[in-house]
Amino acid sequence: MNILNVLDSIGRGGLERQFVELLKGIDKNKFKIFTIAFEEPAISYIEEIKTYSDVYFRIKRKIKYDPTVFVKIYKICKQMNIDLIHVWGGMSGFYSIPSWILAKAKFLNGSIRDVDRKKSFQQLINLLILKFSPNVVANSYAGLKAYNIKKG
């Protein structure tokens, strides 16, 4: 199975640490891991991610909502024959939804990491993506409840 993980950033935060720990535990005989990141801060998990991913891609955005990113992710999905797209944040979900539909891959949204639903344009996009996502995981039941995601 080919899994594409899409992250907004690979800095040194809790989300990124969880991602690296997940990578360490994946059976490389059963799964091929591809990773895309939009941001590479100076202090990051880049070396660990490159070590545990089979292929790593950096997609730079020229502007926050760069339409070329949609095409770049789709091309990666088609070239690498991706079976599952796992998004780790709001922007990664925003950019990955068209590829999920067009490439006919499964989609897993892992963007819930808090219980604070701020009122912002970015948060509105995140909520819409969560409602549109067929599969959602969170690091707590409180997060699922805060975002009104029903357990399945």
Explain what you see.
Helix 3 packs across helix 4. The longest helix has 14 residues. Helices cover 41% and strands 22% of the residues. The protein starts with a strand and ends in a 6-residue tail after the last helix. Strands 3-2-1-4-5-6 form a 6-stranded parallel beta sheet, with helices on both faces. With 152 residues, the chain is an alpha/beta fold. It has 6 helices and 6 strands, in the order E-H-E-H-E-H-E-H-E-H-E-H.
Q: Order of strands side by side in the largest beta sheet? A: 3-2-1-4-5-6
Structural class: alpha/beta
Helix fraction bin: 40-55%
Overall residue-averaged pLDDT value: 92
Described by strand count, sense and barrel closure, the largest sheet is:
6 strands, parallel
**Beta fraction of the residues?**
15-25%
Short description:
This protein is an alpha/beta fold. The protein has 6 helices and 6 strands, in the order βαβαβαβαβαβα.
Keywords:
152 residues, alpha/beta, 6-stranded parallel β-sheet, 41% helix, globular
Topology (SSEs and partners):
Elements: E1 2-9, H1 14-25, E2 32-39, H2 46-52, E3 55-58, H3 68-79, E4 84-87, H4 90-103, E5 106-112, H5 121-132, E6 136-138, H6 141-146
Parallel strand pairs: 1-2, 1-4, 2-3, 4-5, 5-6
Helix pairs in contact: 3-4, 4-5
